[in-house]
Amino acid sequence: MTGITASSAGADVPTGVFQVQAQEQIVFGKPAEVAVLELARQRGARRVFLTSGRTLGGLQNGPLQRIAASLGELHCGTFAAITAHSPREDVIAGAQAARAAGADLLVAVGGGSVIDATKAMLGAIWMNMDSPAAMEPYRTGVPADQARRIEAPAAPLRLIAVSTTLSASEFTPIAGVTDSATHTKQSFTHRLFAPVAVVLDPRATLDTPLDLLFNTGIRAVDHAAESFCSPFANPATEALALQGLKLLYRGLPAMQADPADLNARMTAQFGMWQAIAGFAGGARMGASHGIGYALGATFGIAHGHTSCIMLPAVLQYNAAHNAVRQRELSIAMGQPDIPAHRLIGDLIRGLKQPSRLADVKIGAEHFEEIARRALVYPNLRDNPTPLTTTDQVVEVLRLAA
What we know:
The chain is of the alpha/beta class and 401 residues long. Helix content is 47%, strand content 11%.
C-alpha cells in the first residue's frame, strides 16, 4: 500500500483552532417570555433570577416585565441596576442579590453591559467574591504571581441571555468589566460564562431606542470587519464574518426605513450573531476595538459609538497593508469598487451616528493620553498592521478626528 506524498503546495495549509462555545441553543423569532419559560423548564430551574438595566427595569410592560410574568412562581428576584460599561460594583451587587435569592438560573435581559455584568456575576458567585477589589486577581492580564483562576463548581449556576441590542456579548465567554478606580476596561473569562442559551426575539428590541440599536449594530459591523481582516482568521471564521456583514448592511437601513418591521430587526439580529461568531471561533479584533476600549473607559463613550468613530479610520489606516482583503468586505456590501471604509462611513452617517471624534467632543489635546491607554490592549498588536507606538495610534486618531 502506497501513501500519497504531500506536494509543496501544501506547505501553506492553514493551521489553528476553531473554538466552539459552551452554548446549547440559540432560540430565534419566538417571543422571549415564551422561550425563557421553556428553557427554564428544560433545565429544571426552580428559582430564576433576572438581571437588567434601569431603563428596561422602569418599563411597565417591556421584555423584562413580560419574562417575569411568564415565569410566575419560578421568578425569585430581579436586579435591574446594571449601568453602562459594567462596573465592578454592579457585578458584585448583582451577585450578592442573586446569591441571597437562592438563584439556580440567571437570565440577563438587555444589551452588552447587562450581559457582560451578568457573565461576570457567575464568576463572582462561583468564587464567593464579596467586593470589587476581590475581583482583581481573576482578571486577564494580572501579573502571573498575583493571578488566580476562576473555577466553576461541579454543577455551576448558568446564564440565559435575552438580547435587546445588537452588541452580541451573549455569544462569547468574555465579560468586559470596568474598574471604576482606574477607569480601565478589563476582561474576565471562563468557558461557562457563555450563556447556555440565547434568545433572539425582535420584539424584545422594540423598547430599545433606535439610536442604541443603530450604534450597537455598527459595533456588530466592527466585529465582522475586524474578525475578517484578522491575521488569525481562517476559512470558517471568514465565511461567518462576511455573512454577518452582508446581513447587517441590509438589515440596519431596512430597520431605519420601517422601525416596526420585525423581519428587518431579525435580519440585523442574525447579522450580529454571524458577525461575532468568527471572533468567538478564534479570529481576533484589531485596533478599532483596542482604541475603542480606551475611549470608552476613559471618556465614557458607548462602545457602539467608539466603533462608529474608529472603524472607518482603522480600515483606512490598514488599507495600505490589506486593501485586497478589504475588497472582500466591499463585495459583501454589494459595491466592490468602493473602499470598505467609505461604505461603512456612509452607512454610519446614514444612520445618523457620530462618525468623528469631534462629534463626541474629543480633540487633539487628548490623543496622546488615548494612545497610551490604548496600547495596553492586545488588540493593537493583533491589528493587521500592528500598532506598537503612540505615534502610530495618534496617526489613526487623526484620521478619525
